[in-house]
Amino acid sequence: MPIVKNDVSVTIPFPESWAKIAIESLKEQFKRRFEDFYAYSKDILMFADPFIVDVEGLWEDLQLEIIDLQSNNDLRIEWAQKNKFKLWCRAVFADEASFWLNRGKVRMWTKSGKKRSQKTTKHSPKIHIWAAFSSFGTFPLCIFRQNLDAQFFVKILEWHLLSQAEAFHGNRWFLVQDNDPKHRSKLAQQWISEKMPNNVFQWLSQSPDLNPIENLFGWLKNQVVKQHAKSLAELEKCIQTIWDSLTPEFLEPYWKSMKRRCQMVVENDGNKIKY
């Protein structure tokens, strides 16, 4: 740092060591003053963005508050207005569903006043699927029988989602899935942040009425029941065959319904919609 004294320029070195000590001291003071803030930062973020919170993992006294926020009509309206004109043709809708063997409704005629008993399986065998679709068509179906945990869910994303999404949409797509604990697990979020950080979409919790894949699953289950599968192997084959037959033209009304769903939320003052 040059200083002029008696017409003589003298350079005084910058007190680097003193500056480092001063900065560290300020950092320590800042840390102490904001300790409470850091301790409650997760809670603050939780209320700032309640739609990404897993209610089941909260303390009891917070669960009802978050559920109220997630079901808040004003927030649903805000979300719907924000996403009404989103390019839903780039969305990849994904979720899991379960299918039971011999779980269709049993109807029978009996004489008036007489009871008729029918033996049924108390715990019917079942299989699960992870499925996804977009405007380009269906994604490879994952059929499994074990319980779905975070580790297996990450493998599903790696094997069945990522490569197909890129083949369909390049990097111009976003994933739509609910806030199930497995979807929001630390392992899943870490994988998503590393592999597809630009393809994440904030979805409303407690809002199956907005997700068209729920309607598609309802249709799929009705078609499967009509096939009267006699074994789990037949059930798997039936689900796979029907899923593989779905065309982009068939799926178009599902993803295109998102604009109308958003409109209905606004028109219905944020209440649940019948879709």
From TrEMBL:
Q: Coiled-coil regions in this chain?
A: none
- Record InterPro entries: RNaseH_sf, Tc1-like_DDE_dom
Domain Tc1-like transposase DDE, by residue range, is: 91-235
Q: Which Pfam families match?
A: DDE_3
- On the tree of life, the source organism's domain of life is Eukaryota
Span-the-membrane segments of this chain are: none
The Swiss-Prot or TrEMBL record annotates one GO molecular function as: nucleic acid binding
* Protein known as: Tc1-like transposase DDE domain-containing protein
Name the source organism. Answer: Oopsacas minuta
Classification from the root reads:
Eukaryota, Metazoa, Porifera, Hexactinellida, Hexasterophora
